[in-house]
Write a structure and sequence with these properties.
Blueprint: E1 3-7, H1 11-23, E2 29-31, E3 51-55, H2 59-71, E4 75-80, E5 93-97, H3 105-112, H4 118-127, H5 131-138, H6 145-162, H7 174-181, H8 187-193, H9 195-211, E6 218-219, E7 223-228, H10 232-248, E8 253-260, E9 263-269, H11 278-282, E10 288-290, E11 294-301, H12 305-317
Parallel strand pairs: 1-2, 1-3, 3-4, 4-5, 7-8
Antiparallel strand pairs: 6-7, 8-9, 9-11, 10-11
Helix pairs in contact: 1-3, 1-4, 1-7, 3-4, 4-5, 4-6, 6-9, 6-10, 9-10
């Protein structure tokens, strides 16, 4: 019997798996990649009796591979908060899916584990730009504002490491980052002792300093659009920059478009005060998807830019 852990390479995927394996240790093959690399189940070749755990990747984007694994006799535990239409009814599938705007995968794992490793779910929620949910869930931990600030910085740095066109854009491959993270049951220990965290914190600060020099390409009362260059630093901050912009102007929507050959990588954030519409906007493009509050398009052809800008304005104007 073989075990496979399939997880998104961002803070939510990392912390979801970390919680689960602290509570239920398992020597599994790790299947992951950059945050936008979500069609991960296609890489898994499982047989009857094998166990596959999926964390923080869209069921809609992995449906065909999921059905293949179930038909092969694998058992699949699926934890996620992205769009999931028509969840398969199959004895081999245990689905823990909630697409509510204030939920992330790590919070679903926390519920499943009855709060055994709550502090890591708080880290993930901060990283997923769910600061209110993070603070609400952290109450039983009795942490100071300073300690919460440290957890927020950790979550943001873990999330930052997941963004990039390829693993070469990242400071650490998500599988390697998970292995380093999993050496620590306490996030404060990771913050104090791990050289990995210091590298991420320094890189995050330097890349964000570059991003703050960019002026908006389009702005009105509904939303703001930024366009970043085709550069490693821009690809790394494409998502976290959107989170910071959203936090600074919670009544506006935001889009960050990063140039790539012949088009753009797109990150969209719905207004924090009305987390609706990001998923439906991005789903109108071939490589788009996500959740209500935050979504993206992996490749927006240059010719589609005017349509995207029009739909961006229309989507958030009517909410």
């Amino acid at each position: 019997m073989s075990d496979f852990d399939v997880f998104n390479g961002d803070a939510d995927g990392l912390c979801a798996l970390h919680q689960l394996r602290l509570a239920e240790p398992r020597d599994a093959f790790l299947v992951t990649g950059v945050k936008r690399d979500i069609v991960l189940l296609a890489r898994v070749e499982a047989q009857r009796g094998d166990r596959v755990t999926v964390l923080d990747v869209s069921l809609n984007k992995n449906r065909a591979a999921l059905l293949r694994l179930l038909d092969a006799g694998a058992h699949v535990d699926y934890f996620d908060h992205h769009q999931a239409d028509d969840i398969p009814a199959h004895s081999g599938l245990q689905a823990h899916i909630d697409t509510s705007a204030e939920v992330c995968t790590s919070l679903l794992v926390n519920q499943y584990l009855d709060g055994r490793h709550l502090i890591w779910a708080v880290v993930a929620a901060f990283g997923d730009n769910l600061a209110q949910a993070a603070r609400r869930e952290s109450v039983p931990l009795g942490l100071s504002e300073s300690a919460l600030g440290e957890l927020q910085a950790l979550g943001e740095c873990l999330n930052y490491n997941g963004y990039g066109e390829t693993p070469e854009d990242l400071f650490f491959h998500p599988a390697a980052l998970y292995r380093e993270l999993h050496r620590h049951t306490d996030p404060f220990g990771f913050i104090r002792e791990s050289a990995v965290f210091q590298v991420l914190r320094r890189g995050y600060a330097e890349d964000m300093e570059r991003a703050r020099t960019v002026q908006p390409a389009q702005a009105n009362e509904i939303g703001v659009v930024y366009m970043l260059p085709d550069a490693g630093w821009a690809r790394r901050v494409s998502g976290v920059f959107g989170n910071i912009l959203a936090s600074a102007a919670p009544d506006q929507a935001h889009a960050v478009l990063t140039q790539k050959s012949g088009g753009y990588l797109v990150s969209v954030r719905a207004p924090l005060n009305n987390k609706q519409g990001a998923d439906t906007l991005c789903a109108q493009f071939e490589t788009g998807g996500g959740r209500k509050g935050a979504a993206g398009v992996n490749y927006l052809p240059e010719a589609e830019l005017p349509r995207f800008l029009k739909l961006f304005d229309e989507t958030f104007r009517v909410l």
